[in-house]
Automatic annotation (TrEMBL):
InterPro entries named in the record: Ntn_hydrolases_N (IPR029055), Peptidase_T2 (IPR000246)
Protein name: beta-aspartyl-peptidase
Keywords, sorted A to Z: Autocatalytic cleavage, Hydrolase, Protease
List of catalytic residues: 187
Species of origin: Tripterygium wilfordii
Positions of the record's site feature: Cleavage: 186-187
Length: 320
């Protein structure tokens, strides 16, 4: 048994031709965040602190679909959501529809620790954030010029967009409106286990490009995009509606709990059973296993373990 950590920056239709100026900053961010998480685990920080720390770093990076880089609703606004969960106690906290909170993941943890509830949303979550004194910024802080352009493209194509999926027009003549596969940047998440088998997970997102105002995805829903118990910790990414329908994160844990599958077996089964192109996840087990399966073209991801494994990838292993 030893510590292990895995993180993701979103899954979707990521073409092999994605240009270096789009790919390299994200790979560098994953490398940096992995280092931050590994050092925190080595310093014997609790996994709950580790996953919050790593996801905060990812939220602060404008090239990922969370925090400062969150994509825009059909009204051109930002509505962020996040969730955090402790495996041993199953304590958890979630928020949705926040528009001014710099780090939604930290607000989710405050919901877990400072309220009798699990989930706060919209005006109530914003009021709680002000009450707790968390860092707030005007909504303009979260809106990047790249995401304004992505919303414009999505509206022209009359569709919402999954992480990295290229928008298509109705007649599909404009098959490469964003030929670099950068039409939407990726949901972020982190899972960790320490040398004592303590587990935690955290996930944060801005949702879909051109999503309806008020839409809530899988990220803040316990058992869908985020779940941890005494066996494993899971953070999912992909098409939220498919992940909710499939209770993806909980199913991984359930297969381990009720069928005795290994982490790798359980995660592979769940991802393969999901509709093609809709799901990716990172997961760790109480015994220090790690797995990062996906059924989309690619998933920005990274992991490390105490026994020396270290990996950063985008596409399937034969393509990286």
């Amino acid at each position: 048994m030893g510590w292990a950590i895995a993180l993701h920056g979103g899954a979707g239709d990521i073409p092999l031709s994605i240009p270096p100026e789009r790919r390299l900053p994200r790979e560098a961010a994953l490398r940096h965040c992995l280092h931050v998480g590994v050092e925190a685990l080595k310093a014997q920080n609790h996994p709950l602190d580790v996953v919050e720390l790593v996801v905060r770093e990812l939220e602060n990076h404008p090239n990922f679909n969370a925090g400062r880089g969150s994509v825009l609703t059909t009204s051109g606004t930002v509505e962020m959501e996040a969730c955090i969960m402790d495996g041993k106690t199953k304590k958890c906290g979630a928020v949705s529809g926040v528009t001014t909170v710099v780090n939604a993941i930290s607000l989710a943890r405050l919901v877990m620790e400072k309220t009798p509830h699990i989930y706060l949303a919209f005006d109530g979550a914003e009021a709680f954030a002000r009450e707790q004194g968390v860092a707030l910024m005007d909504s303009s802080y979260f809106i990047t010029s790249e995401n304004v352009e992505r919303l414009k493209q999505a509206k022209e194509a009359n569709r919402v967009q999954l992480d990295y999926t290229q928008p298509l027009s109705k007649d599909e003549k404009k098959q490469t409106l964003t030929a670099d596969g950068d039409s939407q940047i990726g949901t972020v998440g982190c899972v960790a286990v320490d040398q004592h088998g303590n587990l935690a997970t955290a996930t944060s997102t801005g949702g879909f490009v051109n999503k309806m105002v008020g839409r809530i995805g899988d990220t803040p829903i316990i058992g869908a995009g985020t779940y941890a118990n005494n066996l494993c910790a899971v953070s999912a990414t992909g098409k939220g509606e498919a992940i909710i329908r499939g209770t993806i994160a909980r199913d991984v844990a359930a297969l381990m709990e009720f069928k005795g599958l290994s982490l790798e077996e359980a995660a592979a089964y769940v991802v393969e059973a999901a509709p093609a192109g809709t799901v990716g996840l990172v997961a760790v087990s109480a015994t220090g296993e790690v797995t990062m399966p996906f059924n989309s073209t690619g998933m920005f991801r990274a992991c490390a373990t105490e026994d020396g494994l270290s990996e950063i990838g985008i596409w399937h292993s034969s393509q990286n």
